[in-house]
Specification:
225 residues, alpha/beta, Rossmann fold, 7 strands, 37% helix, globular, disordered N terminus
């Protein structure tokens, strides 16, 4: 069965998920970080609690906390139903069931919702989107992009990916993208094209195995320096 998404759904992951998805070291967590397309993830909230320096940008931040919560409610049943119908595409080890998946994701998103109003005032959550970001050249040490580029290969064109990658590399000294699979668990056909594009721009590009795998085979990030 093919998973289809009419549009990109607000679905957030935790600080622990981010650390493992992007192989973040204690030194990484002290850098100035941009979370691009973070949606309702709790990474910003939890890192800020630890004294981190992070800005998250996502078009969903143009909505109020109540509106985002409503969208999460609309998304939850759909995403869980898609996952239930395609359980063979996932690794059920640390997350042992659909119920546990719901508990973990909703817990992360609850932390985000609690932090969001304060974070907007502090300009830690900005409404905006790729491929055009409102930041200066090299403004961030590290840009993280979770579950957007490559995942939505069928929704977002190659041109969008090329321009987005160029923009991320403009605003950050290092970029990490996770995962390298699309929503159906297939390796995105854009990966090699983007790698060639980045190397032609004289950038170092590495595919790095990480200690996180929920989608089968989804345990690799792209690291660009």
């Amino acid at each position: 069965m093919t998973i289809t998404y009419p549009d990109i759904k607000p679905w957030g992951r935790s600080f622990e998920d981010y650390v493992r998805m992007f192989s973040l070291t204690p030194a990484d967590l002290k850098r100035k970080i941009l979370g691009c397309g973070d949606g309702p993830a709790s990474f910003n909230a939890e890192l800020t609690e630890c004294g981190g320096n992070i800005v998250s940008i996502d078009p969903v931040y143009s909505f109020s906390a109540d509106q985002i919560q409503e969208r999460i409610g609309e998304t939850c049943d759909y995403v869980l139903d898609q996952t239930r119908k395609n359980q063979d595409k996932f690794v059920w080890q640390e997350i042992g069931s659909i119920a546990e998946l719901e508990r973990r994701r909703m817990s992360a998103m609850a932390k985000f919702l609690e932090d969001f109003p304060k974070g907007v005032v502090q300009k830690r959550y900005l409404a905006g989107e790729l491929p055009s970001l409102p930041f200066g050249d090299g403004e961030f040490d590290l840009a993280l992009c979770s579950h957007l580029l490559f995942l939505y290969t069928d929704n977002l064109s190659l041109d969008f990916h090329l321009r987005s990658m160029a923009e991320l590399c403009r605003v950050a000294k290092e970029v990490r993208i996770f995962p390298l699979l699309d929503v159906n668990g297939n390796r995105s056909p854009y990966i090699d094209l983007l790698t060639d594009f980045l190397r032609a721009e004289k950038r170092d590009v590495m595919k790095v195995k990480v200690a996180y795998e929920f989608q089968k085979g989804g345990n690799t990030m792209l690291k660009i320096c």
